[in-house]
Amino acid sequence: MFYLYYTIFLLLLYNVLxxxxxxxxxxxxxxxxxxxxxxxTWNKYGCAIDHHLIQQTADAMVSEGxxxxxxxxxxxxxxxxSNNRTDNGTIVIDPLAFPFGIKPVADYVHSKGLKFGIYxxxxxxxxxGRMASLEYEKNDAKSYSDWGVDYLKYDNCNYDEGVPAPLxxxxxxxxxxxxxxxxxxxxxTWGVENTWEWAPxxxxxxxxxxxxYNDWQSIVDILQVHSQVVHLGGPGHWADPDMLEIGxxxxxxxxxxxxxxxxxxxxxxxxxxxxxxxxDPLGKPALRIRHIKEDQDVWGGPLSNNSMVVVIVNxxxxxxxxxxxxxxxxxxxxxxxxxxxxxxxxxxxxSSSIITQTLxxxxxxxxxxxxxxxxxNLTTSITPSNNPSVTTTMTSNTNKQQGTEIPTIRYEAEGLxxxxxxxxxxxxxxxxxxxxYVMAIGNVNRPQTGTLIYRNITASLGPGEYTMRxxxxxxxxxxxxxxxxxxxxxxRIRVNNGEPYWISLKSKRNPTITSDYSIGIVLDKQENxxxxxxxxxxxxxxxxxxxxxxxTPLNQHQYVVQRYxxxxxxxxxxxxxxxxxDPLATTRLTRVLADFFWELLFIxxxxxxxxxxxxxxxxxxxxxxxxxxx
Length: 630
Ligand SMILES: *[C@@H]1O[C@H](CO)[C@@H](O)[C@H](O)[C@H]1NC(C)=O
Ligand SMILES: *[C@@H]1O[C@H](CO)[C@@H](O)[C@H](O)[C@H]1NC(C)=O
Ligand SMILES: *[C@@H]1O[C@H](CO)[C@@H](O)[C@H](O)[C@H]1NC(C)=O
Ligand SMILES: *[C@@H]1O[C@H](CO)[C@@H](O)[C@H](O)[C@H]1NC(C)=O
Ligand SMILES: *[C@@H]1O[C@H](CO)[C@@H](O)[C@H](O)[C@H]1NC(C)=O
Ligand SMILES: *[C@@H]1O[C@H](CO)[C@@H](O)[C@H](O)[C@H]1NC(C)=O
Ligand SMILES: *[C@@H]1O[C@H](CO)[C@@H](O)[C@H](O)[C@H]1NC(C)=O
Hints:
binds 2-acetamido-2-deoxy-beta-D-glucopyranose; globular; single chain; alpha+beta; six-stranded antiparallel β-sheet; 25% helix
């Protein structure tokens, strides 16, 4: 009997293992072994595309040497589709831009030795409002395969509220796989829903940040988030910081060179740009190994054949000398360092391993180290933005806890332990703590909402009452500054399984400052407390970080939790007048009164203006009739 059970058990185990083996099978074809290089229509042409443009571009990519330099993808972005499907679900192509359809265009591109890419969105409409692929993934994948598409950029616009991105993107991935054609699948989710946690198995590249803009600050901001997750990319699943903005007329020559150098060292997909080199076959992204805010960066990464790439960047608005020790910081000894833009060569064998480089503002130097060997793996001086990122202690001067050290723990909103759901996303930000924040929280784009979930909050003095200081960024555009009348942001807070609690935060209508607001919360666990920020109805502020400090005296800590558990009420509570940092917001009554005051003032001014206008009109007419009588 025992043996029978034993055999059944083994059989079950075997089946479970088989299941796992299946799940772990590499689903992604192995053709994307180096990051894709090519050209895309969007940054320059937007929706103004047609079949002439594609033909001309294909010709130019060959005649001007782009193809020879490795840029082999020619990708159509948004607006090749119409707004409609046929009755059998086949997508209808924009008849004005592509009167002969997509197939002849793809054939022409292929005839030049190039590969052909296309675009859609995991929603009901694309970002430009054309027909997208949600619920028609199979139809569209079939069309792409019939036309000979080699690359699909799949965007994240206009989806149904609450359907997670991993699910929507999986449908298209499976549909593409079913066609049997090798189609590069570019997951374009701007880093939402912690893209790097699920997308490496989903697509051949995954976006980590909001769209790039044609300015230097945008590049600095993207690196702030991308550098944290760049190591998760590699052959078959490239981390994508977005396309290149080179040659679009705003970046200086130095900035363009820096932009290009870091992008290629990070093994980013190089879509659009000038030519430097083919991508290295090893496919290991360079890591940011030194970063001084608004000052300098050093990036380093291994290349094939025992060589290495180093990029040194000057962020300062004036020239500076930057020094790197090749052996201690990069773990590379002997050989040569060749600067790839100037072709200057430094012999590292008998000289010191220290390179000093004078760099103009926003310029970089990019070295390839060859003919030497690795002494140790790369070491980085940068702490990843996991939570808790900063721990400070302060000595209390209140009577309650005289002489006690009270820990204050700061949790960055962009911390990688946090889950950023829906449309919410991390964004680089020069004035923010940690260099980034989380934007698009609350009801952003009805019905799509964004949520910030802190999952790993520690009760530093054990379960009990804590003061939570919320540091928020006031607004990032005038049209989205909270409530127009009340000048307040609304935010829903949930702590562990407690009742939701709404707060209203003052808006100063100035995106260049951060503001504070403090509220009390009860943490009833030692580790992994959860704090959720969202709002199904209103737009919330962007959050930079939260800071937690024990609120009750040490000896009463336990008592508070017991009381809270007995009452089972909300585990968020208002602090006293002077603790909250926003006195008018301490009680609902004062808040309502204050908001009412502003509204009243507004209405009074409006009424006064209208009355005055009416009066003037009346006088004017009166005078006219008076003159007429005369
Ligand atoms: C969309 O296609 C259907 C037929 O499939 C047609 O009846 C309808 O008029 C089309 N709508 C537009 C806006 O072209
Ligand atoms: C769907 O209809 C279009 C024309 O309306 C036709 O070209 C296409 O072959 C049809 N597809 C299927 C799968 O029936
Ligand atoms: C860089 O170093 C060189 C040589 O030591 C020196 O002449 C130059 O003034 C330095 N430049 C800056 C900006 O410090
Ligand atoms: C390094 O120095 C040694 C002797 O000091 C010399 O024999 C050798 O050629 C030098 N190597 C290079 C690459 O300059
Ligand atoms: C690899 O590096 C060695 C020197 O370390 C060099 O002689 C050789 O040409 C390199 N091979 C390739 C394929 O680049
Ligand atoms: C670098 O790290 C890898 C794995 O982490 C290890 O196998 C390798 O020996 C290390 N190389 C050096 C030179 O320390
Ligand atoms: C963070 O919290 C989640 C959920 O409670 C848990 O699964 C995860 O292991 C925690 N991570 C760390 C680093 O503590």
